[in-house]
Amino acid sequence: MEIDQQALKVTKKASVSEFKPASLLPEKKTVSQPTEWKNEYSVGIKTVDKQHQLIMSSFANIVNSIHSELAWSAIHYSILELKELALRHFAVEDALMELFGYPKITEHQTNHENFMNRLEEILNISIRKSANKELLALLEEWKTKHILGADMDYAKFILSGASVIRS
Ligand SMILES: [Fe+2]
Ligand SMILES: [Fe+2]
Hints:
The structure is a single chain. With 167 residues, the protein is mainly alpha-helical. The chain has a single domain (46-167), classed as Four Helix Bundle (Hemerythrin (Met), subunit A) (Up-down Bundle). It is built from 5 helices and no strands. The chain has helices at residues 2-18, 46-67, 72-99, 105-125, 132-159. It binds fe (ii) ion (FE2) (2 copies). Residues 93, 108, 112, 146, 150-151 line the site of one fe (ii) ion.
């Protein structure tokens, strides 16, 4: 008799949470997708892909740090790391586009400058208050519009038979 009552209690508890409307359940802290490397992200140029993998991994670190509510100092350090990776990577892309005479080089280089300026701005803001929202928006735009958009475009131009215009 005693055991039966216990079993009933457990069943009742489970059924209440089961039928709770989704809007009343605590918000799930999901990691922004996708930040991990997938083959479909490849632009087809080995050096660029390797750098993009490191950059994506840095994005993932930052996103995970934010969702795990780590201290800002940890996030700050990851941004500095991303800044270093991006500086080196943008220099490689700028050189490639110049070397092959990519027609949209000015627009692309402006995008690179814009990302660096925004990263710097976020670092400065973060001294006074959280800049997580701005940071997540920047990473999302960088990934979807730039790596999977603008970078694909210049790589396609180079791989479609463009020849070196600089000696
Ligand atoms: Fe890139
Ligand atoms: Fe780029």
